[in-house]
Amino acid sequence: MGAISSAKHAGSTLARNPILFVAATAFAVVQLPQILLQWTGLPFVASLFNLVTVVVVPFLIGGIYGMAEEGLDGTTSFGTFWRAGRENYVSLLVAAIFFALVVFVVAFVGILVLLFVTALTVGLTGLQGGVSPVALILPGLVGLALFVLYLATVVFLQFYEAAIVVDDADVLDSLKESYRFVRGNLLSTIGFTVVRWTPSVLTSLLTAYFVVSSIGVDLQNTEALEPETFQNIYAKLSATELGIVVAMTILTAGIVGAFTRTYLIAFYVDHREAAATAEQSDDEYDDDLFDDEYDTIG
């Protein structure tokens, strides 16, 4: 099973269960106020609302993933949404906190290392008569390596939610299981990650382009841009333009979100089943080999 075959599996699941688009749209609606508040000059209110979403999101994630798993080989319903969300809520909430802590630690340590290397390199070259562009090569390489490490952390742990919903793993085991899963399917996981992230990146760029164009920003004249240009950005939109942004966000998030989340479950389940089948075949081969040797001895 490769990334493309799992994408086809996800597509057939969505075609058979369009209700998944409804669930993903509900997820987008819950997160939309936080995005709008952040960009309308109300960061404190956005932070408070973020606390609400942190509490609600694990339930929604559990429900959508539960529906996606059930829909892989049949049909699903909102009954599964409520059941899976309720049963996996605590584990998903705690695991999300652990995941965020791991990513934060990796990013924080990486920034400290980069600052140290930059200060050391610039300081040493400065003592020798000035900082040359060559002196920035080492910090650049270190920064690139740390960025790759950050991405690797996200990639290796991205299946912890699937491990909880599909395999009923506990918090720590879900992170370990995600790491083992990616390690055993590294190349296909890289392809999966590219396919999964591409729609989200493209739709985000499309929305950003519409917003920036609506407020009259000339992207070809970047030298004239100032930090104040992007402050309270949604407040600069007309009611019609803001309505279009909201509609675009909900529509694209509903469609893309349904695909990416169903795709993750399809990829995880397909590869777990393939691994289980291969292991069973190996066991059967070992049993047959033992029987042949026993018959020969007999």
Automatic annotation (TrEMBL):
Q: Which domain of life is it from?
A: Archaea
Q: Does the keyword Cytoplasm apply?
A: no
| Alphabetized Pfam families for the sequence | DUF7847
Task: List residues of the DUF7847 domain.
Answer: 1-271
Provide the alphabetized UniProt keywords.
Answer: Membrane, Transmembrane, Transmembrane helix
Species name: Haloarchaeobius litoreus
Under the heading InterPro entries, the entry gives:
DUF7847 (IPR057169)
Keyword flag Mitochondrion = no
Instruction: Tell me where the transmembrane regions lie.
Output: 20-39, 45-68, 89-122, 134-157, 186-212, 242-264
Q: What is this protein called?
A: DUF7847 domain-containing protein
